[in-house]
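Researcher: Please predict.
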Amino acid sequence: MAELQLRSLEKTYGNGFRAVHGIDLDVEEGEFMVLVGPSGCAKSTTLRMIAGLETVSGGEIRIGDRVVNDLVPGKRGIAMVFQNYALYPHMKVTRNLSFGLKLRKMAKPKIARATEDVSGILEIESLLDRLPKQLSGGQAQRVALGRALIKSPDVFLFDEPLSNLDAKLRASMRVRITDLHKRLRREGRPATVVYVTHDQVEAMTMGDRICVMKDGRIMQVADPRTLYARPANAFVAGFIGMPEMNIVDAVLTREGGVPRLSVDRQTVSVPDGLAHRISAPDGPVRLGIRPQHLDIVPAEAADAFTGEVVNVEFMGHEVNLHVRVGPETLVAVAPSAPEIAAVSRGDRLGLMPRGPQIHLFATGEDGANISLSND
């Protein structure tokens, strides 16, 4: 295995469209790095440049101690798992797994041992004599994974490999892939992985670290807990977390040195856990509160936003309450206790922000998180 480094990586197409804007990224040896972002953010383009399937317009790709910009895919020491599996339809599973090793002219006994090892790891021994058309989606994806694993590459590249599977099977394959990564690490043969997805659940549950992208730029690179608790900007805050973070227009003021936040002329005190982190001047800000960090309190309670319930989503063990506060709508997640189950549209409730979990962002679509300044 080897580390992967991207330095000032750029991609500009012939029509002048600049898809990737000089990004820098380090993926450590044995790390599971996830590239995540909305459609069109250039995560797959970045992956394809690493693989050698897209030309590089500028910058450098380094795998281990080699700059690979000008190397063909087969010389880069990578193996790629695609969304559509890309299995050879006329070859049985055994040959699909071993074909790459045969091209390398590996001795037949070694190929046989490698095929046996990989099929055992992925529990596909019973599938070896089947053709791809005889496989389910999950089985085909495990064969595609085995075909990459058998090559012992320096870097594994995954391009939305689970997007064609149903929700239950996706969850199962997430666990299988991450368990395999951990197993290889325990066995002393760690796998360096770059995994592309648009699904933040996949990103949060699979990645050692996550690279959040937007419009060909990197918004933040961090472990899942840091992305959730300390988003660098409003884009990351709104993209990571389900339901997504409430981000609304607010005004920051100080009365006697004590910071306060107003939404539609309703004002709450800034908790001590947040107040010491705020260095921004008084004026307009973007207030960010995760739905899980809003407590349901009686209407007109002190230090709470009061509004009208406009929608109730029963999720089983939880209820999502959509509460209109002036021109804004705040979503709160509450346990489905009897008192919450009795809430209906038209009711008035208070929403109290919970302690230091509030975030303040500079105005603008991707405004920086100004509540991390002094933390």
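Model: The domain at 244-372 is CATH 2.40.50.140 (OB fold (Dihydrolipoamide Acetyltransferase, E2P)).
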